Amino acid sequence: MNTTEPVWFKSSYSGGGGGNCVEVAIRPEDVLVRDSKDTERHPLVVSPEAWTAFTAQAAHLRA
Description:
Elements: E1 9-10, E2 22-26, E3 31-35, E4 44-46, H1 48-62
Antiparallel strand pairs: 1-2, 2-3, 3-4
Organism: Streptomyces xinghaiensis
Protein name: DUF397 domain-containing protein
Domain DUF397: 7-58
């Protein structure tokens, strides 16, 4: 388990109007996903492999 603070970045698709915003922190052992409006809740934790599969599928659906 990683004890260092994750470095979060906001989705490039998130607007500045406070709507639906997702933040992600990528670490070697896992990927953390959270709602930027509710940062005190525990993030969703997925494996790097699962994150890669998710983002590939999302990119495919956008095409």
